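ESCALATION

Customer reports they have been waiting on this structure for their group meeting. Please prioritize. Original submission:
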Amino acid sequence: MASKVIPWYKKKHASHVKTDYACCHTQSVHKQQTVRKSSSKSVSQVQAQATEAMAEPAYTIPAFRQRSSEGTEEYQRVSTNVGRGLTVIQEELSRMRVATKARVDSLAIQREVKDMMAKRPDYLDDIPKMPDFLVALRPHTVWEKTPVKLFCTVQGNPRPIVKWYKGGVPVDPLNAPGKYKIDNMYGVHSLIISRCVVSDTAEYSAVATNPHGTATSKAMVAVKRPAGAGESCHLGLVPHLTEIHASKLEVSLLDCFRVSFGVEGGSISLGCGMVVVPDLPNVPPLAQWYRDDKLLKPSKLVEMSVGGGAARLTLPHLAKDDEGLYTLRIFTKDGTAEHSAYLFVSDAAPSAAGAPGAPMSVKAYDINSDYVLVAWKPPNTVNEAAITGYFVDRCESGKDTWVQCNDAPVKVCKYPVHGLSVGHSYHFRVRAVNSAGISRPSRKSDKVTALDAAESERLKVIKIEGRYDIVIKDDDLEGYVTIPGEPTDVHASEIFRSYVVLSWKPPSPRGRAPLWYVIEKCLAGTGAWQRINTAVTLSSPRYPVFDLQDGQMYQFRVYSVNMYGSSEASEPSEPVQKVDQDGVPSAPGQIVATRNTKSSVFVQWEAPKALKNLMGYYIDGRVVGSKEWFPCNHKPFKHTRFVVHGLIPGESYVFRVQAVNVFGLSDESQESSPIAVEPALATPSAPYGITLLSSDGSSMTIAWKSPKHCGGSKVNSYYVDKRNADTLVWKEVNQSAVTERICTVDNLTDGTFYEFKVQAGNMAGVGVPSAPSAAMKCEAWTMEEPGPAYDLSFSEVRSSSLVLLWKAPIYTGAGAVTGYLVDMAKKGSSEFATLTQEAVSHRYLKVSGLTEGESYVFRVRAVNSAGVGKASQVSEPVCAKALPGTQEIVAGVDEETGDVFLSLEACEICDTSKFVWSKNYKPIGDCPRVAASAKGRTSRLTFTSPDKDDLGKYSVVVTDTEGVSASHTLTEDALNTMLELSYAIRHPIVPLKHGLNYEILEKGHVRFWLQAVKLSPSVSYRFIVNDKEVKSGEGTKISHDVATGVIQMTVDHFTRANEGTYTVQITDGKAKTQSSLVLVGDVFKVALKEAEFQRKEHIRKQGPHFSEYLYFTVTEDCTVMLACKVANVKKETVFHWYKEDDEIVPETPPNVMSGAAALPIPLFSRKDQGVFKATLSDDRGKDTSAFDISGQVFDDIINALAQIAGASASDLVLQCTPEGIRLQCYMNYYTEEMKTVWKHKESKIASSEKMRIGGTAEMAWMQICDPSDKEKGHYSIEISDGVKSHTRTFDLSGQAYTDAYEEYLRLKAAAFAEKNRGRVVGGLPDVVTIMEQKSLSLTCTVWGEPTPEVTWFKNEQEVASTEHTKVTFDGGKFASIVINKVTPDDSGKYSINVRNKYGGEFVEITVSVYRHGEQIPEAKLGHAKMPGATPAATPSATPVPPKSPAPSSKTPTPTPSKSQTPMSMKSPTPASTPASTPIPKSPTPTPKSPTPSRGAKSPTPPRFMKSPTPPRK
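Update from on-call: job pushed to the front of the queue and completed.
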């Protein structure tokens, strides 16, 4: 994923797999190490060996080589000439050697100069310098309403501050929001003026200022308005805008996107940060995005943006089609800058459990006027059932309705869709089918339009004179053609078991009339042709045939038809058979997985032997030990190598591969060998951060930081090189490897500057050297303060805290180091803040209060008695963010051994990782008090003999990771808790859930039992009672259950002899325990009593008995029910109810066969208290249940009644009576035993003469007698059921009180009149039968106040007092009429009318006179009447009361006759009127409405009609 810059002429296509050069590099490094190690031999020894090898023995001329004098001269002459030639050659070689050395030195000098020039800015940073414009402002002429950007580059030390001016006036962006934008990025200062107007024409200046001076750069901006735009332009200049092409920019990529993972239906964004020089808003870099080397274009599914220092690609609607290798390619001045990373898109949740994933890459091919061939790629099936087919859907462009094209699933990944409408555009999608269901639909295809492809082929282009193009059709060349020619080249273009696609070439000549085709088929060789497209008008030279029989060979021929007729038949096609020609590919070959990175693996495999139009491969993986496979890619990958990303570091995996083609997936390949996810082995990266720790004038001690990448192997060696800062030659410092990151370099020259570089080595070889350090002067340090601390590192990095560690300085100064000060700053800031007010004595510090996601840097300063020393090198930036999956140290006790331990499970690890434990941040090393062990990703620190000396803070660091570390403080309380648990494990006991206990069973058996947490099958135990072991036998049963851990002993006959102490002793392996139970004294008596009771209960239940004894319930109508349940009954069983030994015979006899009986007690009250009994008996025995209704039971019943009554209570109702105003509350049932409280204005009301409280069975009432204004206010009744109160209220004030008081006065007056009216009290018969000549005396008692007037009538004629008929009225009480010697003429209807001012009464008597000897006539009853006149205060419409009580009188009142019963009276006044009611002084007001009677059953006065009673609840 690394970014790289490639010149355009060297650009190659990006590949998903990078070349691994580790092997070659390892070989060269191995040679380098060999050379370095061999160089340790002495120089003299090497020189001696070289001299010996180059030495030549003395040469003796053989005899046959001896020459004469002439020969000798010739030989010397020739030798001289040869010597001269050799001398020339040697001189030339020497010259070339010198020239080569000079060239090499020149190149070295140039390289050194280049390096020094790169460092020059660092040196110049310390030199004060006044501002200087490297790039000055330049003038601009622009059109109106276009932006302009002025930019300049300025240098200086300190960095200058730049201010902008327009015509000498400072430019303030706040005064014109959106008009100006001032920016400063990478040293380039810019002023952007948006939408320029003519008034922006002015001289602009940039003024740079620092403490050493000021510099100014000026430029003219001219804004021109186009002609005809209103005002004329006064400049008269045509603006010339310099155009900068995007490819001329310098672009560097930063923060590039990594390997990403998405899900179907989601969205994802890939982006890279950029540094663009110059950064011009109007000229963004030219960026191109590729997927698998195919250029992407903006669309609804692909959104691109470039600008603002970033290039971004957004995929708003992910599908598996989007999976692949994405490459960002940006054109730069030097070529292109590229970055690539893979995007994985997994399946969304299936529509049904087990359904396959969606197909992908749906495309339409071979497009014709009514035919399209749709193809797609199959999804991967890992754990799902195999795919059985596919459904293809189509949708017209612009519509949302999808139509399924095939009735039955097609088994191959192609399907010919026919029956399209010419000129219409369509989209297609595909759904996969398996035994579990149908997948989600694929992404729809691109829009395709059904057009005849042959039409474009019929167009011809003719050039005339080489200048003009004329387009004509073949029709123009064919002439006038009516009947078309026959088609040609009839063949099968697609042959599958599901269908066959026929293809042919259109006829030539064709004619201008619309053309269609007719297809015929026949079995090969038969000649029996049959038309197959009878119902389809075919316009395209393609047609899919589905209904062919398996195993048969067919031939086809085609006719061309138009409006003029049909052509001849084409030549028959070759015989065609419906069969899958290829099938799925064979399985891929050997698969090999190798290490790649800490979260990825490189997988390679051999291609299948039979490719069969291969689409690609699916790679599956699984964790070693797991049976579940997971897909590594979700879209077929074309190459035979793949990098599987997203794996768990340190975990082991195996992989398999399947090949894919149009027929589906091949068999799986063989599984790869297991491989752990770890980085590939390579040499380490370069060390860095070389710092000077001490110098004494002849030696220097330096230190450095570990390489950021160890290369997958532990760094085990370092090599240091040095050089004089004035030379270019590096010299080795150490021949043998240095294992620590600190080295003392000796034999240096005092006062000389030296540079150093370091190389790290591992088992793969020696890595690249570090960058040369800064030049360091070798001089003796004499300062009294200590030198710098070094090797700053971080541990336990979390979201808000971290631990900083460092090493003590090598140079201590005048005294020992007494502490350290720690400074912190945010990344990029030079303002350090000291974290410790006082120096800390230890070499670590926990820093808290950090901001999550923020990066910080630190430095440490050592302190001694002389002061604060030099600050350490600034640490690397650290981000306050915990690693994903970070775990903390766990303290625990081993369940098997009882060892106390600390444990950490690392979130990541590699082969070279080690767990380094520390106490108080000092490495523990080999310590007899603890033992460290590691297994996989977990390390454990076990304490051998833990005690208080082991208290402290323990930490662990996992090396060769991204900083996995944690700490734990072991406190005394925690240690004591773990020691107790450790003792319990090492000295085990059998843990008990429940100690020894007992319970009484049926029949009076007693069970002694205990329960252990866990028992093994080999457990042994014994019961000891009073120091004697008890074993199973007669009357005693002992057993246990391993599954539940229960051990028990059952005693059948529990008697007084069983009193004593019971003990159970258990042995289970090494664990032991015992539990005892003391059963003596009162405890034993209770158990014995219960056992005897259970024995009796068992005997009782042998006959008819009560399974549930008597209890009470209350029904909704407030009837109390005494109920019980019976068992073991039969038809002959007799049931009886009793109260206080008196039998109760209910209306409905109890039915014992139903299993239950109930006795209703209606209108429950105090009178129902007593003992109720129920008996059950037959020939098997008798059982009795008693229920005492008194005390608390009675209160409970009353509360239950109150609960139902209170819930059913109506609102308070107002009722007026002659005595006063009454408030009534109706409910299901009321009795005075209920806890009922009446309140007036929240004050409790007690029953008195003024306030009377009472009730009936259906209501509770409170009456205000003789009301006055004091009784106005809020009234309430509270009915308590022992749990809550039911409250009803009424507001008796205002108009309600006024109306009630008026009604009360009216009723009071009416009652007074009723009481004092005239009436016949008694004495008169209804019928009198008398013989003539007898005397008849009718006498009665009358009453009234004042004394009433009495008048007698006969046949409605007043009777005057005569000798024959004498009328008397004595004492105002006794009225009589005497008829002397009656005659038949005296027969008739007599009546008496008694009346005073309050009213009266009219009574009739029938008198029959018969002669002597006649039969006594049948008596005919008379009827009492009310006289017509009534008092004015009493309305005639008042109903007749049931009874009028007689007023109190000292004189005895005769009993009225039956004719005077209330039912025959017509008095208009109410019934119950007390005799003591006073006579009102004022006339009674006329009521607004008549008051009806409530009837004879209720003595309650009639209700006031204005407040009707609401319906009962």
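Sent to customer with the following note: The first helix runs from residue 22 to 38.
Escalation resolved.
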